[in-house]
Amino acid sequence: MAMNLRLRDDQAEALKRRAEQEGISMHALVLRAVDDYLARTAQQAIVRERAKEQAAKWSELTERLK
After folding, report:
1. Which of 14, 48, 62, 65: CA 20 to 30 A from 33?
2. pLDDT, tens digit, for every residue of 5-45?
3. What is the CA 36 to chain-centroid distance, rounded?
4. From residue 1, how far is each of 4, 27, 59 by CA, in Å?
5. How far apart are CA 43 and CA 48, in angstroms?
6. CA dist 33 to 6, 14, 27, 55, 62, Å?
7. Is the separation of the CB atoms in 19 and 26 below 8 Å?
8. Is 51 helix (H, G, I), strand (E, B) or coil?
9. Distance in angstroms between the alpha carbons of the first and the last residue of the chain
């Protein structure tokens, strides 16, 4: 899938510098950033879901301890 990405001038310059430092294209760097974001937010969603499950499991005990 193709898409356009409009960056501010400062963002484009910073992205260009970072890509040059890492020896990869700006495109590859953006793809890496997207992959990192998706992995991190997926993990956060799993943690939130597990926390909800544990809160529900222990809600009666938690109420008694208040």
Report:
1. 48
2. 999 999 999 999 999 999 999 999 999 999 999 999 988 87
3. 6
4. 10, 13, 45
5. 9
6. 15, 14, 10, 33, 40
7. yes
8. helix
9. 53
